[in-house]
Design a protein that fits this description.
Blueprint lengths: L1 H27 L16 E8 L4 E7 L5 E10 L10 E5 L8 E5 L8 E3 L4 E7 L7 E10 L10 E3 L4 E4 L12 E7 L4 E11 L10 E6 L6 E6 L6 E3 L4 E7 L8 E10 L6 E5 L3 E7 H4 L9 E2 L8 E2 L2 E7 L6 E5 L2 E10 L14 E10 L2 E10 L2 E9 L3 E6 L13 E3 L4 E8 L6 E11 L9 E5 L2 E2 L5 E2 L6 E7 L9 E12 L6 H4 L14 E12 L10 E6 L11 H31 L9
Parallel strand pairs: 9-11, 29-37
Antiparallel strand pairs: 1-8, 2-7, 2-38, 3-6, 3-8, 4-5, 4-7, 10-17, 11-16, 12-15, 12-17, 13-14, 13-16, 18-19, 19-22, 20-24, 21-22, 23-24, 24-25, 25-26, 26-27, 28-30, 30-35, 31-32, 31-36, 32-33, 34-35, 36-37
Helix pairs in contact: 1-4
């Protein structure tokens, strides 16, 4: 019994430590089983509020048998502000487990509203927390959607200097489960001022349910400058020439949505005037402080066509089309120039004298070689100032679904079958109708920098591939088709680069009208304007397969190991069993010793 008494303190100590370990583990894993709404196969959406504890590692898998994608939104994330992204984060994977492709990572350092979309009907996300004992909350909302059935008027690209847009169905109730993205981009040198005339969304302190997110840049990866909801009318200003606006709604409480407008603000410093030439217009910026010497705010300035008026903001801007507003086009020695004049509006016919300074701004853009040279003359009472500007032709290249060249393929990368016919179009973006595009050289490469090896599809205007067909001249468009191929001993990606010539369509002796000629016969002096376009990657299709159980799967683990034979509960049971064995063995030995002492040998008496 003495041995039992000695073992009891050790036993109590072991039981106390195991109990504390078990309680700590239960506390750490408590939120791994917290879900809201219940998961079942009939659900198309679900919301969860996760109250996270220290030292957790939990994984959720969302899966349905339908052929739909999953969009998951973490509209409110409160993690350890002092923790690193390595020790505390949320990771989202495309597929049935954390072994799938990583879609992205979220931590306290992120400056955006995290939104991820799966490529199929399965998605997995994992939450890991560090040991800091602070309050953590994550609001998760996901739903299934069909990428091929978009909501009308839900997002788009806005590239004018000013404009307006609204939520779908405005002023009626906005649609449920909507995710709309508007990309706003104005000309370089400008900033964007965004004004919301009305916002009527579901009211929430953290804007977890329905919200607008505004990003200072061209995408949702740009810095977040605002996340708003409820009934407010805020104003935002970008730091560059691009801004992104996102509308996200859930499945309940639909209201009017929003109405917004934007304007452009010139962001660069300017003393007098500046000129920028592009392939479709001339842009003249005039400082208002410069015009004050003429007692003008710019409202009385005009072009040769007096109906073309300037845009007034913090500067005076003329955006002059190359084929309008009185612009004069002149072709001379294989060079094209465009000229216009800015003056004050004509005085009243009854006036015969003026004491106002005379101002005449002569704007001239010359197209030469691979660039555009601009020159501006400012005359103030016989005083002339000259300024120069440079630019390039604006061209782009795109893939189309058929030889009608009506529907552009927007996928990138674009997956194709081997030997599939591809239709390619190079477009010249200009307002001058008297120019024509000619495909001089088009080559392919397995890398984006067009490094070796390369393969010529078109060279000197001649088809070099047996499947390549070059279409006849067609104004601002150069077109051809070819069958898809892959490079041997290289990746399955293919990039295309086309060098194009731009000619005056009225010149029947130009290089563009000569068509396919050998290099030895080419007349280099017969054209002056040249540029190039690149597109890619084009990739071969690969088989993709997925398997797994349907429904919303939930997995809890403490370490990222495939087998976990013992946890604390197992250890506790094992120690109790060992302790019982020790106690029973001790009692048995004690009893055996006592019996042996009692039945010791005795000397027999003699009778």
């Amino acid at each position: 019994m003495e041995l039992v008494r000695r073992l009891m303190p050790l036993t109590l100590l072991i039981l106390s430590c195991l109990a504390e370990l078990t309680m700590a583990e239960a506390e750490g894993n408590s939120s791994c089983s917290v879900t809201l709404g219940g998961a079942n196969m009939a659900e198309t959406h679900k919301a969860m509020i996760l109250q996270l504890n220290p030292s957790e590692n939990c994984t959720w898998t969302i899966e349905r048998p339908e052929n739909k994608s999953i969009r998951i939104i973490f509209s409110y994330v409160q993690l350890d502000p002092d923790g690193s992204c390595e020790s505390e984060n949320i990771k989202v994977f495309d597929g049935t487990s954390s072994n799938g492709p990583l879609l992205g990572q979220v931590c306290s350092k992120n400056d955006y509203v995290p939104v991820f979309e799966s490529s199929s009907s399965t998605l997995t996300f994992q939450i890991v927390t560090d040991s800091a004992r602070i309050e953590r909350t994550v609001f998760v909302f996901y739903y299934f959607f069909s990428p091929n059935t978009p909501i009308p008027n839900c997002g788009g690209y806005l590239d004018t200097m000013e404009g307006s847009f609204t939520s779908p169905n405005y002023p009626n109730s906005h649609p449920e489960l909507a995710y709309c993205v508007w990309h706003i981009q104005v000309e370089k040198g400008y900033k964007i001022k965004l004004n919301f005339k009305e916002i009527f969304l579901e009211i929430d302190k953290q804007c977890k349910f329905d919200f607008l997110a505004i990003y200072d840049g061209p995408s949702t990866n740009s810095g977040l400058i605002g996340q708003v909801c409820g009934r407010v009318t805020p104003t935002f200003e970008s730091s560059s020439n691009s801004l992104t606006v996102v509308l996200s709604t859930d499945y309940a409480n639909s209201y009017r949505g929003f109405s917004a407008s934007y304007t452009s603000i010139y962001a660069e410093s300017i003393n007098t005037t500046s000129l920028t030439c592009s392939s479709d217009r001339m842009r003249v910026i005039i400082s208002k402080s410069y015009l004050e010497a003429f007692n003008s705010n710019g409202n009385n300035l005009q072009l040769k066509d007096p109906t073309c008026r300037p845009k007034l903001s913090n500067v005076v801007e003329f955006s002059i089309p190359l084929n309008g507003c009185g612009t004069i086009r002149k072709v001379e020695d294989q060079s094209i120039t465009y000229t216009n004049i800015i003056t004050f509006s004509a005085s009243s016919p009854s006036e015969v004298i003026t004491r106002q300074k005379h101002l005449q701004i002569i704007v001239k853009c010359e197209m030469e070689h691979n660039s555009t040279v601009g020159m501006i003359y400012v005359t103030e009472d016989d005083i002339i100032q000259n300024q120069n500007a440079l630019g390039k032709y604006n061209t782009s290249m795109a893939l189309f679904e058929s030889d009608s060249f009506e529907k552009t393929i927007l996928e990138s990368p674009y997956y194709v079958d081997l030997n599939q016919t591809l239709f390619v179009q190079v477009s010249l973006h200009t307002s001058d109708p008297n120019l024509v595009v000619f495909l001089d050289t088009c080559r392919a490469s397995p890398t984006s920098d067009l490094a070796s090896p390369t393969y010529d599809l078109i060279k000197s205007g001649c088809s070099r591939d047996e499947t390549c067909k070059v279409y006849p001249l067609f104004g601002h468009y150069g077109r051809f088709q070819f069958n898809a191929f892959k490079f041997l001993r290289s990746l399955s990606s293919v990039y295309l680069q086309c060098k194009v010539l731009i000619c005056d369509s009225s010149d029947h002796q130009s290089r563009c009208n000569q068509g396919c000629v050998s290099r030895s016969k080419r007349d280099i002096s017969s054209y002056k304007w040249k540029t190039d376009s690149i597109i890619g990657p084009i990739r071969l299709k690969r088989d993709r397969s997925a398997s797994g159980n349907s429904g919303f799967q939930h997995e809890t683990h403490t370490e990222e190991t495939p087998n976990q034979p013992f946890n604390s509960l197992h250890l506790f049971s094992f120690m109790v069993l060992v302790l019982n064995v020790v106690i029973v063995a001790t009692i048995t030995v004690r009893h055996f010793v006592n019996q042996q002492a009692y039945y010791k040998y005795q000397k027999l008496q003699n009778y």
